[in-house]
Amino acid sequence: MRTQNEMAAYLFHEGTNYTSEDYLGVHKTGSGYVFRVFAPNAQKVFLVGDFNGWSEDTRLYKVTAGGVWETFVEGAKIAAQKRYKFKIYGNGNVCYKADPYARRTDKMPETASLIPSEEEYTWRDGGWLAFRKKVVPELYTLPMNVYEIHLGSWKRHEDGTPFGYTELARELAPYAKQMGYTHVQLMPIAEYPYDASWGYQVCSFFAPTARYGGVNDFKSFVDSMHEAGLGVILDFTMLGFPKDEHGLYRFDGSPLYEKDDDGDVASFDLERNEVRSFLISSVLYWIREFHIDGIRVGGLSSLLYIDSGKTQKRAAGIELIKVLNRQIKREFPDVITIAEESSDLKMTGTDEGLGFDMKWDMAWVDASLEYASLDNTLKISQTDKLIYPITYRARERYMLSISHDEVVHTKRSFLDKMSGDYWQKFAGARAFLGYMMTYPAKKLNFMGYEIGHFREWDHDGEVEWFLLEYETHAKFQRFVAELDHFYLAESALWKKDALADGFSLIDADRAILAYERRADDQNRLYVVINFSAEAREGYMLKCGDRMCEAVFDSDDLRFGGNGALKLKKASDGMLKIDIPPLSFVILKPIGDK
Would the pTM count as exceeding 0.70? Predict the structure, then answer.
């Protein structure tokens, strides 16, 4: 019969050890620490660090035929939070490698791994986890409004240094709750060497970046979000890893974790069993150790397709994603999984799809933003651009996302994407958000959009909070908050997102878009949007069998509008509406819930 360690090693080499961090890396045991590393092509391996003056006096020995090396160091010789690396001889090279399974790292620009501290963390979120278990199975019949943030540039000190986990939690939790968000989504925070990669080029897949504090500081951050009633979604990348000397690249002197090393980033070798154990273990570790409520997986095209034309599928990538989603749901059925992928490959569901709960609707984003940026004189003749996403909306469970990717690299800020002059940009942004928040899907927006900033996102800066000193920006923020809370309160806007009878298109012509949202016969809303810069007078709308009243008006004076909306009862149960330019109105039948 195999021992526990022998079974862990067997499953690791088989590709099915999904807690491989409990076997590899460094672990306190008995009177000291045991270190293990996977390096099948190495000729010899040494443990070097502060404890031995970085000398070659602590050798590792191969303990599995598949290439796991191991050593033991007495506790009296080594202390928690001391630095270490593996010095690996292989293929004629000598390299100092950080521990791939390290749970703590030195603060950049230092690259060493740290012996983990034995300090325990006492979680405060038992109530939240019980709530999550109850509601997530019904998630797609509930509101979901996500605030995506980059931790390093949400808010900074006067000297330009970013807020730490503790400071962020203290300010972000009440702000996000007051603004009407249900979740925050963090861009990747697993330790990464290069700030300008935004966290998407990871070297330590099990360690929160030390830029903003320690491991327990991040746990407290998550706790604070949960205490405020906010879920935490983590952006996770399986795209690959950078070629930094201390990272995974040519780890034992030869390609090990990588399959393709063209370009600046090496792609994972998804056909290697040990790589599959590594990646799936990493995702599950974040969920288990940090109480993460959901993951968003980006860069799926490189995993799922061999060619850039997205025609030849990659079997190993598809199987990895299926296994990952299956394992998450087996261990954590109340954790959300979200895919970012623009191909026709079905992402959601387990029968035909890959097992995700939701998929970003990239076609909706592209079509809607293209339309919003049109010269206002052209919108009247091109309203059909908004129709295509409606034709496929029942195919998947979607999330609408205006993410960080949409506001960088000369794509312009959310507000600046809107066409027209200064006033028209704000009015157009209000109209667009009205469209987004009333369309059938869950929502995500990137930080800063809510104050109407003109500059593109800068990862070295911060959200331009000073703009709130100006009335137009302050009113726009108020508009976003009131719209978000209206969305949360009205079940017609989310209860039947995935059902055909939850949405009905009424009109899409001459820059007017009108539709009905429905939770049931006694809970309906009608949305009319004027994307044109010209007022539309006398627009006729039939609101079912009863008259309607306006319950949300984007042209309200308190939002920066002109207060020009007019409603008048017409014959045959019709409602006559004078719709201001670049505005929307939400109507509710009088007497509905």
Answer: yes
